[in-house]
UniProtKB/TrEMBL annotation:
Reactions mediated catalytically: D-xylulose + ATP = D-xylulose 5-phosphate + ADP + H(+)
Family: Belongs to the FGGY kinase family.
The protein's name: Xylulose kinase
Organism: Timema douglasi
Keyword Flavoprotein in record: no
């Protein structure tokens, strides 16, 4: 007994509560200071809250394009979750910080007066009872929505094209991204969107727009939480370079939008103390901190502790490829995000002038009121370029925000090394300019399941036997299987090619079919990674996560196709884990770096090594890219990936 008391004292105030608002369910875990799980529970939306009549956590229109979730469902789920955790023995007095992750892109529309309701919640009542009138539209658009194609094109046109939008926000316009969803609401239901000065405090109109992550954070905070940089990168509204809302994107989306979004903040920031409601109702400690919540993709990036040279492949319902890019490329497919771990990552070339005598001479005179900046974006700066190797300067007075990062005696430089090879030598040791990239492949596990069902009546064991019984390279046969419209490349249907590169209707055996599917899926990912400039080299490695990362036969193909070892993480849920690191990092960020904080964690476990002939096999099937993205480009008369986003058909198949 006394041992237990002591244990409680030791752990006092050291636990973290993490929530995860997914499509089907809300998950909650409490973890201790060593990031071990103490309590875990979930609320299944369809089964536990049937009154909302959701199917798979969402409500769809008949045409299947407009897909939303009832906002109050998520609130009620949180009521249930906190009660369930308490019943399971959780002691909320020990929670030092709360963080969370949520499905990306979805948006919540708070009604005028909602902030007041949030601030003065009555502890004796459920959240959902009190927030029932807090949303200007009862249904939140979610990432599965595809009803905003028109708004996407409008946005791209208004900013000067898809490429321009990608340069600013990291992505071209996507239907599921928040900007087009907000634009649709503003155009089709202006009274819901508008919040004009003339309205009375009881009028309708959304006063604040949250992402699902910042919405969930707001509930704990008792006021509107700010959107974090990384989840904000999934909106088509955030300038990922300045980390401020892009005025041109705001203007192109909806009127007075900046007033409804708040100020974007670093993903590892503390947003404030927990609201009084939770202190009184659940006995949370009033000192408990609420960290920024973020999207599931950035959280996964954090959870996997990705380093440069590592690719992460999440083999979940859909497949996702994560990697770090050295340069914030302008991509017409996939997404560049703000770094969720290191808030200064893109301006990470900070060093003492004293460390680098070459800089001394040029910098002295500019030291106190100058800020070096990339000249490419600002021709005005050319005038002060000195010898072309540094001194891309402008006055801090132009940008007071920058003041905060300039320390006396320090020189801060932001530039792209690749733009100027002469800079390489001075900047290399300090180089930490990396950009998280994430690309989705819709036809992941569900397509593997379909082929499994067709070939083996639903058995993964038999599927693996078939896979293992065919040689790497599949006798030159190759397949591309897209049950639903793929994003990268923009195609649909099953497409099979024989050794001579002719299309065939079917393969001669199920073994060939199964291997063609799995090799084809991973070749698509490798081709895409290489198109982004990621080189698979000696030290490269893959981290696999998600449901199919339990399947060794599939991982072996992944390893062979990338000719790199594949590792798996011991902890299954990388997004949840990422949120936990983030909450902890937010608490200790002042004196501990992220890598120091996570150094105690067990490293990923080696699952597979590539076979010796893997590289040779890849050469044999390296014609793959010709058959996918680049080939598409050739068909439609352009070599760029952008052409893959227009619909087109493969040439007709010949019988096997
Ligand atoms: P989510 O993406 O929803 O988080 P998971 O990461 O749990 O889902 O992945 C679920 C998918 O994992 C399922 O669609 C299933 O097909 C796949 N899966 C589970 N076990 C295996 C297995 N042994 N082999 C291949 N795929 C598997």
């Amino acid at each position: 007994m006394s041992g237990q008391v002591q244990q409680r004292r030791v752990n006092k105030q050291s636990h973290l509560l993490i929530t995860s608002t997914l499509v089907f369910q809300l998950k909650g875990v409490i973890i201790n200071n060593d990031l071990q799980i103490l309590h875990e529970t979930q609320v299944q939306f369809d089964a536990d809250l049937p009154e909302f009549r959701t199917h798979g956590g969402v409500v769809s229109t008949e045409d299947g394009h407009t897909i939303t979730a009832p906002t109050l469902l998520w609130v009620k789920a949180l009521d249930l979750l906190l009660d369930q955790l308490k019943l399971a023995g959780a002691d909320y007095t020990n929670i030092a910080a709360i963080s969370g992750t949520a499905q990306q892109h979805g948006s919540v529309y708070w009604q005028r007066g909602a902030q007041h309701t949030l601030q003065f919640l009555e502890a004796s009542k459920f959240l959902h009872e009190q927030l029932v009138r807090s949303f200007s539209t009862p249904n939140s658009p979610v990432w599965m929505d595809s009803s905003t194609t028109e708004q996407c094109r409008q946005l791209e046109r208004a900013v000067g094209g898809a490429q321009k939008l990608a340069e600013i926000t990291g992505s071209t316009a996507y239907e599921r991204f928040t900007a087009s969803q907000i634009a649709k609401l503003s155009q089709t239901k202006p009274s819901v969107y508008n919040n004009t000065e003339s309205e009375t405090s009881t009028g309708t109109g959304s006063q604040r727009i949250s992402l699902v992550s910042s919405f969930a954070c707001s509930l704990f905070l008792g006021r509107y939480a700010d959107i974090d940089y990384s989840d904000g990168s999934g909106m088509n509204l955030l300038d990922i370079h300045s980390k401020e809302w892009s005025q041109i994107c705001l203007d192109a989306t909806a009127p007075n939008l900046i007033d409804k979004l708040g100020t974007p903040v670093a993903s590892s920031s503390i947003q404030g103390p927990i609201s009084q409601y939770f202190v009184e109702r659940f006995d949370f400690n009033p000192d408990c901190k609420v960290a920024s919540f973020t999207g599931d993709n950035p959280a996964s990036l954090i959870g996997m502790c990705l380093t440069e040279g590592t690719i992460a492949v999440s083999l979940g319902t859909s497949d996702t490829l994560f990697l770090w890019l050295r340069r914030p490329q302008t991509l017409l497919e996939g997404h560049i995000l703000c770094n969720p771990v290191d808030k200064e990552a893109y301006m990470a070339l900070l060093w003492s002038v004293a460390d680098n005598p070459r800089l001394n001479t040029v910098s002295q005179s500019h030291m106190r009121a100058t800020w070096p900046y990339c000249v490419a974006g600002n021709p005005r700066l050319n005038t002060v370029i000195h010898e072309g190797y540094m001194a891309l300067l402008w006055s801090v007075a132009d940008n007071p925000r920058l003041n905060t990062v300039i320390h006396e005696g320090y020189m801060a430089l932001l530039w792209s090394v690749a733009d100027n090879p002469r800079l390489n030598t001075v900047s290399q040791p300090h180089m930490r300019v990396t950009w998280p990239y994430c690309g989705h492949f819709k036809n992941g596990s569900l397509t593997r399941e379909r082929v499994r069902d067709d070939c083996t009546e639903g058995s993964w064991e038999l599927f693996n036997e078939l896979l293992d019984s065919t040689p790497r390279g599949n006798f030159g046969n190759m397949g591309l299987y897209f049950d639903v419209q793929e994003i990268i490349p923009f195609v649909k249907g099953d497409h099979r090619f024989n050794k001579a590169n002719d299309r065939v209707q079917r393969f001669t055996s199920m073994e060939v079919e199964v291997r063609a599917l799995v090799e084809g899926q991973f070749l698509a990912k490798r081709a895409h990674a290489e198109d982004l400039g990621f080189n698979i080299e000696a030290g490269s490695r893959i981290i696999a996560t998600g449901g199919a990362s339990n399947n060794k036969s599939i991982l072996q193909v992944l390893s062979d196709v990338f000719n790199a070892p594949v590792y798996v993480l011991e902890a299954a849920n990388s997004a949840m884990l990422g949120s936990a690191y983030q909450a902890k990092h937010a608490l200790v960020a002042e004196h501990t770096s992220f890598s120091e904080m996570t150094s105690c964690l067990s490293p990923p476990v080696l699952a597979c090594q590539p076979y010796k002939d893997a590289a040779q096999v890849i050469i044999t099937i390296a014609r793959y890219p010709l058959c996918t993205t680049r080939w598409w480009g050739a068909i439609v008369g352009s070599s760029s990936l952008s052409s893959t986003r227009s619909r087109h058909d493969f040439p007709p198949a010949t019988p096997a």
